[in-house]
Design a protein that fits this description.
alpha/beta; globular; 2 domains; binds nicotinamide-adenine-dinucleotide; Rossmann fold; three-stranded parallel beta sheet; 10 helices
Length: 285
């Protein structure tokens, strides 16, 4: 029987601390850390994510500006909105909810966000800083996973870590963070040969592929720590991860459930990053 890594519990405890830190910062500086989130179009999942971010900000004492634009917003219009937020001293963090409508070049949009306000840490300058280990912001989901591992005192040093998935948002930065903590890291993907055998080597297995229940017991070594990043909705509307929890849980030493594992940690990191951006813009001018 695995220990369940309770993302809701960890997240609540970290958010309590963030709320205290925001309060202390605001009392000292007179400034309310503020996050602006831009949503383009009507994607229902994106709407839910944006609403959750808004609620979490307010709960932490962070100002939240929501900008909702129609699906036919042009790239130039979006760029000019970002530019205005870049110039606005009262906005410390900017997040453009992805995915964007097809006619907008995501890379161009990410590159337009002031790197000092890039609380998602997707801007190439911030990505480069992660590569060298000298960063201000970490991408929210991988950083949230590191917080979970730390909370449960799961040692990374010298451990075999296998990351399944190599996206810029999760897989690649996850691998770098595990490497930074002296894990021995293997990154795998859709072209990896005999993936189950590679995954079975892992002491710590992180799965971020977006394929419901893909990772079964045959991918998992007895006693491994299994982190499931996947969020997939089944035909009957149920949320499931990339890991087949029922078959993997009996083999794992620790495992994250879906929902209630990695998910809540992503917004928690976003709140921390927004406070950090406000602190840096106030004290490091
Ligand atoms: P992505 O589609 O950008 O990347 C998927 C990666 O998985 C690719 O690198 C691909 O090579 C790999 N992959 C796909 N099929 C594979 C296979 N059969 N075998 C091995 N590798 C395979 O996805 P992403 O943005 O990294 O997201 C992955 C999952 O994590 C999705 O379900 C997404 O919803 C979820 N997600 C959750 C959070 C959270 O807060 N919990 C945050 C971001 C993403």
């Amino acid at each position: 029987m695995a220990n369940i890594i309770d993302g809701k519990l960890v997240s609540a405890s970290l958010r309590d601390k963030i709320r205290e830190d925001v309060k202390a910062f605001t009392e000292k500086s007179g400034i309310t850390p503020t996050l602006a989130v831009i949503l383009v179009g009507e994607d229902p999942a994106s709407r839910v994510y944006v609403r959750n971010k808004h609620k979490a900000c307010l709960d932490a004492g962070i100002g939240s500006i929501q900008i909702e634009l129609p699906a036919d917003t042009t790239e130039d219009e979006l760029l000019s909105r970002i530019n205005a937020l870049n110039m606005d001293e009262n906005v410390h963090g900017i997040l453009v909810q992805l995915p964007l409508p097809k006619h907008i070049n995501e890379e161009k949009i990410i590159n337009a966000i002031d790197e000092k306000k890039d609380v998602d840490a997707f801007h190439p300058a911030n990505v480069g800083r992660i590569m060298t280990g000298k960063y201000d912001f970490l991408p929210c989901t991988p950083a949230g996973i590191m917080s979970l591992l730390d909370y449960y005192k799961i040692d990374i040093e010298g451990k075999k870590c296998v990351v399944i998935g190599r996206s810029n948002i999760v897989g690649k930065p996850m691998a770098l963070l595990l490497l930074e903590r002296n894990g021995t890291v293997t990154v795998t993907h859709s072209r990896t040969k005999d993936l189950a055998a590679v995954a079975r080597e892992a002491d710590i297995l992180v799965v971020a592929i977006g394929k419901p229940l893909f990772v079964t017991a045959e991918f998992v070594k007895e006693g491994a720590v299994v982190i499931d990043v996947g969020i997939n909705r089944t035909a009957d509307g149920k949320l499931v991860g990339d890991v087949d929890f029922a078959s993997v849980e009996p083999k794992a030493s620790y495992i994250t459930p879906v929902p209630g594992g990695v998910g809540p940690m992503t917004i928690t990191t976003l709140l921390r990053n927004t406070l950090k951006a406000a602190e840096k813009s106030t004290y490091e001018k």
